[in-house]
Write a structure and sequence with these properties.
The complex is a heterodimer of chains A (275) and B (207).
Chain A (H helix, E strand, L loop, with lengths): L1 H11 L5 E2 L7 E2 L4 E3 L1 H7 L22 E2 L3 E4 L2 E4 L3 E6 L9 E5 L12 E10 L2 E5 L6 E4 L19 E8 L7 E3 L11 E2 L5 E4 L2 H8 L4 H9 L2 E5 L4 E6 L2 H14 L4 H13 L1
Parallel strand pairs in A: 1-3, 4-8, 11-13
Antiparallel strand pairs in A: 2-7, 3-6, 5-6, 7-8, 9-10, 9-12, 10-11, 12-13, 12-14, 15-17, 16-17
Chain B lengths: L5 E5 L5 E6 L2 E11 L12 E7 L7 H17 L9 E10 L4 H16 L7 E8 L5 E3 L3 H6 L2 E8 L5 E8 L3 H32 L1
Parallel strand pairs in B: 4-5
Antiparallel strand pairs in B: 1-2, 2-3, 3-5, 6-7, 6-8, 8-9
The chains are: A alpha+beta (275), B alpha+beta (207).
Chain lengths: 275, 207
């Protein structure tokens, strides 16, 4: 466990800023400051002899780094605000310095623009529905924000229905607003979720893991039983299989997935496939 | 000088944390950012509420004053401006009290906030010092040592520069003794922060 000893020594040394690149994949704690690659060159020791002396010492090439969830800009450094593993993604197109973010585990959802979520209709007031999305405020959903909805042709939405939609307005200062159509006016899978099925809640980290491309869990689930499944980024999953028993099994397996290693999961799937 | 030996257990619900320090243990849970009553909402930051329940009996004035101290410490550290018009509630239940209770509550509250994913600008910890009749400094005193001490001082320190966030003191002590206790608390806080780091790394290594 030399890593923890080194890290503990640094912590005792007084929490000076570390280079972001050196901490990738490690657990970072709130309060730590991270240096971006360009600064680390300027402040790193011993390399001055090999670099040519620059005539404009004040101008540094600015690389645009995106600061994701769990990080805040603090001067020209990054301040960690949540505990988790530090991740980095290289920029896909040219230019930019990529994205840094902290992968944290939490259950409470905070609305983000563009996220697809599952909400429960709690009230109908005039022209809008109030939808509970698990955040601090219920989101508002206009009755015209459904495919093919007009003032005469209202959508058939009752209190208690499940809605799959995305946020168009979601910031800390305003009430979140969601819609069930995309920018072209098509439903694209969004709208009222059908009858039956089971809605249950998991942590946000598990949802992100399941929605990652090439997720093994989903492929294995699909081979097990034919199913319909909807993932909401607010930690809610709706699942429906042929019988109630199969639905419950799927729900239990998904909830347990978080704490199992891939071997244990494969064992459980093979046992279920046999029975 | 005693050093805090803590142990953290994350209960199955994932939202509750139990923090043990010697024989003192406190159960902490954080709810939020959640809906807030219009009368309590603050337009530009989150409303922080702390509820401290004693082991037996109804909460009284001592609990209210401890709640206030914990709330003031948390408000200095939590980035409330990111969640205006919401409420963040910290619920602390005392399971057993064997001395250094306020420090244990502060540690439990900090770990619960980190666990719930509430954005913070630093971590914080609580350290208790007791000065007995002949001026000897004892860190993390037991209940018996606290009762017999001439002065009991509790400090809340932050993780970035071990700056003082909150201090509450009871008893007689000189200015020099205060500085001495503060220095000892700052040194001891390093152990607590190392413990935080180890337990959080252990938690994330399971996933």
């Amino acid at each position: 466990m030399t890593e923890t000893a080194v890290v503990a020594a640094e912590c005792l040394a007084g929490g000076r800023a570390r280079a972001a690149r050196s901490v990738l994949g490690q657990v970072v704690l709130p309060g730590e400051e991270l240096l971006l690659p360009e600064q680390e060159d300027a402040e790193g020791p011993g390399s001055a002899g090999e670099r040519p002396l620059s005539l404009n010492a004040g101008v540094r090439s600015r690389v645009r780094v995106v600061c994701g969830p769990g990080l805040r800009r603090c001067g020209d450094r990054l301040l960690v605000t949540k505990c988790g593993r530090l991740r980095h993604k290289e920029p896909s197109g040219g230019g930019g310095g990529g994205v840094y973010w902290v992968d944290s585990q939490q259950k409470r959802y905070v609305p983000v623009k563009g996220d697809h979520v599952i909400g429960i209709v709690t009230a109908k007031s005039g022209d809008i529905f109030k939808v509970d999305v698990g955040g601090s405020e219920p989101a508002s959903l206009s009755y015209l924000a459904f495919e093919g909805a007009t003032k005469r042709n209202r959508p058939n939405v009752q209190v208690g229905d499940l809605i799959y939609g995305q946020f168009v307005v979601a910031n800390k200062d305003m009430e979140p607003e969601m819609v069930c159509i995309d920018s072209c006016g098509r439903a694209n899978g969004m709208g009222v979720i059908g009858q039956d099925g089971l809605l249950f809640k998991v942590t946000l980290g598990l949802i992100r893991k399941l929605l990652a491309p090439n997720c093994e869990i989903l492929q294995e689930l699909g081979k097990l039983y034919p199913l319909e499944i909807v993932f909401g980024m607010n930690g809610r999953i709706w699942v429906k299989a042929k019988t109630i028993q199969q639905t419950l099994i799927l729900a239990n397996v998904l909830e347990a997935c978080e704490h199992m290693t891939s071997d244990q999961r494969k064992q459980i799937f093979s046992r279920l496939a046999e029975s | 000088m005693m050093v805090a030996q803590g142990r953290v257990e994350v209960m199955k619900a994932g939202k509750f944390l139990m923090y043990f320090e010697g024989d003192t243990s406190v159960l902490a849970g954080v709810y939020g950012p959640a809906e807030v009553k219009v009368s309590k909402e603050i337009f530009n930051k989150a409303t922080l509420e702390v509820i401290l329940r004693p082991k037996i009996g109804l909460p009284g004035v001592a609990e209210k004053s401890r709640e206030r101290l914990i709330r003031n410490t948390c408000e200095a550290v939590v980035l409330g401006a990111l969640h205006p018009r919401t409420s963040i509630t910290i619920v602390l239940q005392i399971i057993s009290d064997a001395g250094s209770l306020l420090a244990c509550c502060l540690n439990a509250a900090c770990m619960a906030l980190v666990d719930a994913g509430v954005p913070m600008r630093a971590l914080f910890c609580g350290v208790t010092c007791a000065l007995d009749a002949d001026g000897t400094l004892v860190l993390d005193p037991t209940a018996k040592q606290e009762k017999e001490a001439r002065a009991v001082l509790t400090f809340a320190l932050d993780s970035v520069d071990q700056k003082l966030l909150m201090s509450t003191t009871k008893g007689l002590f000189s200015n020099a003794e205060l500085q001495q206790c503060l220095a000892a608390a700052q040194a001891a806080s390093q152990h607590v922060f190392r413990f935080y780091r180890e337990s959080l790394q252990r938690r994330y290594s399971k996933s």
